[in-house]
């Protein structure tokens, strides 16, 4: 038994998609799949002869459109999974904190990590945590829309920091070409939260000077229907 | 004992840099480091408190400039390593096929895999092979400059295909956001060499319609001095 694990990258939005599968049973999950790269992902799932069971989103993204619906149409055993706080009718499973989903001999456990959006989930598989936009490498998600809250994000990252130090951290994005970190590294070197208290973290997050994501007015409505249609103005 | 393994990506040239280290002794190697991302790489090596021993190039690149020399200036224990067929005076070690270099309790073994350039090396560390531009994911390197030869590349990839099927394949580039493959997958699905004979492979490689890399006239001279100075027209 071994875990098939494939990080995949979408350059335009610097998004990581993660494909995981049990090498024996072929049952698979995909986390944060992106519309632009759906043909690549479908091709890989077919080549590896995987049985896609769960199409998982860490949150309703504002910077890219998910390929959840197209993937579900292609792989009809698959269910779309989002955190319970997301008002997304297209999800088959609104997962709660602490719940597990099985794929072959592996399981993925949901951890509620709100703050970037109010519905953000992280997911743990063995020694890996998929942190979405809650904890990024040396950084963290912004908190200025979709129910974002720097106070909640501090608590969420503090909770992620209770995972074993050796846990590998796989974020939804990295803009500098880094692919993985670890909990101990982020405790030590994260430029937003490393070694600071909640008040200072909140001050730093609220001082971020960011323009809105270019695609937000398209991406959020589209992702609220799991990418089943592209909403345009 | 465990292996620290960090794939790193440079977006402009879609180049992968690989940092590997023994987690106990901290001795480290870096493969195909890029000028644009040298500050990121230096920062990571410093944060992880690594003792960089070898700065390894799979070949003299035509599409980006190496950061070998700046890295060596920063990490003075490190030696620059290139394959023996490269006429590169700045290399400290011109490695031969079959030779090993040690870092902590790990070793990296050189495999001569000419064809993309005449000096191309692949490197094996445990269950991973770093294939440079010889074997790419579902593709292979071009053979139209720097002593390239499709015939030699066929023989080199055939040799890579003698590695165990489960071996992970980490190329120097991927333009589609894939980060890793395996020997069995490339035997089965590689669009250039999968299931074809030498004559057909050579026909396919020679039929590639490619413009020269934008940076070739800067990158090759700069890389022949290990990135110690930027050569401009």
Map the helices and strands.
The structure is a homodimer of 233-residue chains.
Chain A: E1 3-10, E2 15-22, E3 27-31, H1 38-47, E4 51-56, H2 68-74, E5 79-83, E6 93-95, E7 100-103, E8 106-112, E9 121-125, E10 128-132, E11 135-136, E12 139-140, H3 150-160, E13 168-171, E14 181-182, H4 183-189, H5 198-206, H6 216-224
Parallel strand pairs in A: 3-4, 4-5, 5-6, 10-13
Antiparallel strand pairs in A: 1-2, 2-3, 7-8, 8-9, 9-10, 11-12, 13-14
Helix pairs in contact in A: 3-5
Give a brief description.
Chain A has 233 residues and is α/β, with parallel strands linked by helices.
Question: Can you give a write-up of this model?
Answer:
2 copies of one chain form a homodimer. Chain A is α/β, with parallel strands linked by helices and 233 residues long. Chain A has one domain: 4-Layer Sandwich (Metallo-beta-lactamase, Chain A). Chain A has 6 helices and 14 strands. Chain A is globular, with a radius of gyration of 17 Å. The model of chain A has no long low-confidence stretch (mean pLDDT 94). Chain A binds chain B through residues 6-11, 37, 40, 44, 47-48, 176-180, 185, 188-189, and chain B through 6-11, 37, 40, 44, 47-48, 176-180, 185, 188-189.
CATH homologous superfamily label of chain A: Ribonuclease Z/Hydroxyacylglutathione hydrolase-like
Order of helices and strands of chain A: EEEHEHEEEEEEEEHEEHHH
Q: If you compute it from the alpha carbons, what radius of gyration of chain A comes out, rounded to the nearest whole angstrom?
A: 17 Å
Largest interface summary: A-B, 19 and 19 residues
What percentage of residues of chain A falls in helices of 4 or more residues?
10-25%
What sort of overall outline of chain A do the alpha carbons produce when their principal axes are compared? globular
Oligomer: homodimer
CATH fold-level topology of chain A: Metallo-beta-lactamase, Chain A
Number of strands of chain A: 14
Number of helices of chain A: 6
């Amino acid at each position: 038994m071994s875990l098939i694990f494939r990080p995949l990258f979408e350059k335009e939005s610097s998004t990581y998609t993660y494909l995981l599968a049990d090498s024996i049973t072929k049952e698979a999950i995909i986390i944060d799949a992106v519309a632009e790269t759906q043909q690549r992902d479908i091709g890989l799932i077919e080549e590896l002869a995987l049985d896609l069971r769960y199409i998982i989103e860490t949150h309703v993204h504002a910077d890219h459109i998910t390929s959840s619906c197209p993937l579900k149409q292609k792989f009809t055993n698959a269910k779309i999974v989002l955190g319970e706080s997301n008002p997304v009718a297209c999800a088959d499973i609104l997962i709660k904190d602490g719940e597990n989903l099985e794929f072959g001999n592996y399981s993925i456990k949901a951890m509620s990590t709100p703050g970037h959006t109010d519905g953000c989930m992280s997911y743990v598989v063995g020694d890996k945590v998929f942190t979405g936009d809650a904890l990024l490498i040396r950084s963290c998600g912004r908190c200025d829309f979709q129910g974002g809250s720097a106070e909640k994000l501090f608590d969420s990252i503090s909770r992620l920091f209770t995972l074993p130090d050796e846990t590998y951290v796989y974020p939804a994005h990295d803009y500098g070409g880094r692919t993985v970190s670890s909990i101990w590294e982020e405790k030590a070197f994260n430029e937003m939260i490393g070694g600071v208290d909640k008040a200072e973290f909140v001050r730093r997050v609220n001082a971020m000077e960011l323009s809105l994501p270019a695609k937000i007015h398209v991406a959020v409505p589209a992702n609220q229907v799991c990418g089943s249609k592209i909403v345009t103005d």
